[in-house]
Amino acid sequence: MNKMLKQLHHQGKIWSADQVKNVVETIDSGYQELNQHLNGGLPRQGVIEVQTINGIGELRLFLPYLLNLLHADLAQQQQSRQIVFIAPPAQVNALMLLQASIPLDNLLIISSQKPEESLWAAEQCLKSGCCFAVLLWQQLLAVHQVKRLKQAAVTGSAVQIIFRSPHSVDLALPVSLSVALEARPTGIKVKVKKQLGGWPCKPFVVNMHKQWPSLTSATDSTSDGVISNVVVPLSSRQRFKHVAKTTNTQRISAN
Amino acid sequence: MLWLYIDFPSLQLDCLQGDTPVSTVTERNYSNDQAIVIVDSKKNCIVQLNESARAKGIQQGMGLGMAVSLTHELCVVPYQMAEEEAYLLTLAEQLYSVTASIALFPPHGLALKVGDMLQLYQHLTAYIKTINTVLSSFNLKTNLACDYSVMSAQLLACAGVNLITTDQNIMSKKSACLSIEQLFITDKAKNSLARLGIKTLAQLQALPVKELTKRLDSTTMEYLAQLKGQTDKSLQFYQPKHLFEHSVELLYEMINLDLLLQPIKQLLALLEVFLLRRDYVCLQLEFHLYHRIDGISHVLQQSLVINSATGEYLSAQWLKLVSLKLSSIKLLAPITKVNLLVQHFQSNTGEINDIFLGKRGQLSFAQLASLLANKLGNEKVLRLQQGNDHRAELASCYRPFINCSTNKVDRNNNNTGKTISKKIDARHTDSSATYSVDKQLLRPSFILAEPELLLSNIRVLHGPERISTAWWEQSKDKATIQSFNGEATDGNEPIAEHGYQRDYFVAKNTQGQCCWVYRELNNQWYIHGYFS
């Protein structure tokens, strides 16, 4: 190597690509495929953007990660810290979290309706230092808002996960990791849109059959062999029926 | 038990003249040589008077007409009992920091239980010195007297005898000289004693009780027994309030906001002392600003609510926030009175910093939760809780964090990591703490508050699983239907109130969403939740 180059390298003024692993501290995500493609797991700190529709297993993708994070956090911190759900799309079910071994004592839910309130709450939770993960369901995000969240996450050494719908306005947000999720019969197809200190990779499928055998099929075939199909009545017909039903009940009660 | 009675013979007058923190100075300025008398308008006699009035020959108990005839330069103030009583409470509040049991004798007396406090102060003189230091800042005229019964201490103090001693002989000697007129008994009783030729307490106490009972009524006899310490008087003790409320009446009407900061600073200083003594912090201050309308001096003009992100007790920090808030408001009329009210307090938990990890966050979890609840409302900051029910919508429910467990918060704060991790491990084995978790049950992660109509095609993965309500729920349902006159689908009624029988399926729709759908008896399909 050139002597001058060697000197610069020694001074740490040159950054070489094989140093990637040291840039972001990661936590085992619980899924082999994710760990492979994301340098060992999901980031321990920072902001993760998830573009997904609700109900395809996006939360299940993060549950093992959250649990690992909780345990890693307990080992390091002197007190147990919280997971915060802000503005979840519907009521969170306790049983599902308990099944995933996440204790309810470590969970705070903030059901704010206004986006500004949600963002404010997220920032407060992050920088308070008593939450290790904040999950936020929010559509619109501006660059400066993400920057603030990121700063707050660093202050409180926490991770911010933001769930958005896939077709939201796509700005180059300063997030640590941005993934787009798509439903697949075996699990979830993950497309890494941005990864801090990582190489771009092709979309890959995370197989969830091991963790959730009843919700996913073993093979990627869309054909339905064993499982029966149910065809549901047309929407218009059902609405009509619904009206008929309510009038029926009224008639019964009148009797 | 030794008691110390403190009498404030001219409390209202001293308040008028003194420059005290809670000043009740009216518009007029009183110079030192101005003769001031306080007149009880009901009895039309002078109850309190200052030195210069006394020098002019005015005496207590004199009529107003006579006093005016003695001097033409006389300032007359009506006697206000309520004002004295309020001031007495302030005094008790201040004394409470140095002595424990304070019995209130409104309108202008306090009795302190000295017996208990001597263990702390060792000697009576040290105790009296401490009491005097507290009282000296108020610049009041006081009479202090000790005795082994409260009533007798009161008698001595009100008679103007200053007696600091633990010797019972001196006490009884002093009280024996007191005349019957000074006793707190009815005039009728005094008269009947005078007819007997009894003039001093010594003479009265020499008589046998049996003889006295014939001539005096029961209340007087009870009083005499209390005087001797034979029976106890039920006392009204001072209890510190669990809220902070103070007000400052302004010397002149203020329109300038910068000037208004001065009285606010005064109030905040008082608040700081209050919080520091209790090791509290507060998150919210309420200021009420009063102004004058049509002669009514204190009408509420506006209220300012000031929130702090972290619990604060330092007046300097609060003053910063207050001045920020004041810069954004507009006064409609000159202010005559400022009132500060603080209702909610938190214990000062302090920060927990790891020396190796450096300073992380600024808040403890309790502080964060109260901060969120303050800003967003209590009903929006929630804890998740398991319910003992087989119906999914009841097996998991939200509870407001603030109401649900104030002690729980503290417990979490004090917990070390070890106990928490134990708790996590123990969770599944220890079913007594929570309801057992069935790992086999397929339940969605999100449950819709109102089941939605299923409008798209689905592919069933699992099912059916029948969930029906118990028979008593069914009957309840019928009852509610009858009472609501057919409005069973009323939006206010929770779904769980109704009896139902549903067949649940886990299914995927065309978008790949994993839904929890159910079919009702009449083949209606609904989505109840999503497996996110």
Description:
- The complex is a heterodimer of chains A (255) and B (532).
- Chain A has a single domain, classed as 3-Layer(aba) Sandwich (Rossmann fold), CATH 3.40.50.300.
- In chain A, the strands form 2 sheets. In chain A, strands 6-4-7-8-3-9-10-11 form an 8-stranded mixed β-sheet, sandwiched between helices.
- With 255 residues, chain A is an alpha/beta fold.
- In chain A, a hairpin with an 8-residue loop joins strand 10 and strand 11.
- By secondary structure, chain B is of the alpha+beta class.
- Chain B has 3 domains: 202 residues, Alpha-Beta Plaits (2-Layer Sandwich), CATH 3.30.70.270; 104 residues, Dna Ligase, domain 1 (2-Layer Sandwich); 85 residues, no CATH class.
- Helices cover 36% and strands 26% of the residues of chain B.
- Chain B has 20 helices and 19 strands.
- In chain B, the strands form 5 sheets. In chain B, strands 8, 9, 10, 11 and 12 form a 5-stranded antiparallel β-sheet that branches. Chain B has a 5-stranded antiparallel β-sheet with strand order 15-19-18-17-16, with no helix packed on it. Chain B has a 4-stranded antiparallel β-sheet with strand order 5-6-1-7, sandwiched between helices.
- In chain B, 29% of the residues are buried.
- At the A-B interface, helix 4, strand 5, helix 5, strand 6 and helix 6 of A face helix 15, strand 13, strand 14, helix 19 and strand 15 of B.
